[in-house]
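Note to self: keep these together.
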Amino acid sequence: MKILVVGGGGREHAIVKKLSESKRNLKIYVAPGNAGTEDIATNVAISVMDFEALRDFAKSEKIDLTIIGMDDPLVKGIVDYFEAEGLRVFGPRKNAAILEGSKAFSKDLMKKYGIPTAGYENFSDPKEALKYLENVKYPIVLKADGLALGKGVLICKDKSEAISGIEELMTKKSFGDAGNTIVIEEFLEGREVSVLSFVDGKHYALMTSAQDHKRAKDGDEGLNTGGMGTFSPSPFYTEEIDKYCKEHIYQKTVDAMRAEGREFKGIIFYGLMLTDKGVKVLEYNARFGDPETQVVLPRMENDIIDVFEACIDGTLDKIELKFENNAAVCVVLASDGYPLEYEKGKKITGFENFKGRDDLYCFHAGTKREGADIVTNGGRVLGITAKAATLKDTRKKAYEATKLVDFENKYMRNDIGISILDND
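Structure:
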């Protein structure tokens, strides 16, 4: 069976690693991939947004299943493009990927179908947005409507910060067209939890919970990034919270999308906030999270091909997802200066320390091969994931494992999962 994975980050490396463990005889291609995926698959030098070249490759190589890892091609309609050519593909169609592609759409959907979320208003006119600031309670949250690499969210402590934020998003267009419309949302306090789910249009199957750390610096300081580390499961996602979410959020979202004529097949990622007034949905993503995938998939016991196919065929209710009774922690090794300016091309050493280990993973994100060397090629370079019996032990093991690999300008947060210790 021939598989094509579209993407080149840590999430895609984790997906490819899981595919490589399948009992089926798979030939795996990755476009464009990275220096890590080429160890277990064949990299293909095609951009994720070059739909025509991806389609031609899938047809010429007789690919049986294409898995779309990234948000941009999903939102732009790659699944529709492949399906129109009779190609089998995993991921939501364009009209369903809007769940992530437009924050204004997702907020309106939640309001319409009674799915708990923060109070908000949408604005496409900066003057109206500024006028709205006169009567809001601070802090306040500004969100670019479109995709902004996980960085188009500004938390404003007071009115002057909010005015600057609107100017940055809507006037200066710091995130391009993503800021044509913005959402102004009430600020929620509590613990964040990420829950990923497989969806087949009607049914959903929950993966294990996780918690991401978005800010660049320790203590949740600094700029928002694509994610500096994560742990799974979250001890804060209790049975009581799970029961509430199953009643009020998960199935309601799947049903709402179908009712809107936007049947969703693929991954729905729920960003949840556990507030003192109950659980609220912060955001939806329409694909695997990064770096959440790097702690969730290593703990999954199912053959992932079976699950992908059940989502496409509408038979997910026949699958029982199983996860190891343990914990995983991922610490992202980044280039110092990320998410702003940073240098690339730094030689990375120490990969041999992960060979033959089933409790440690070194997921490549921003890497490439240069001759005999593997060098840095992005802001987030590697995701170091460890598994152990408890979260506390796993956290210790993950940080010890970060010392096994090295490169000049290596940077990491030192407090990933610190809340685990506070919860002991």
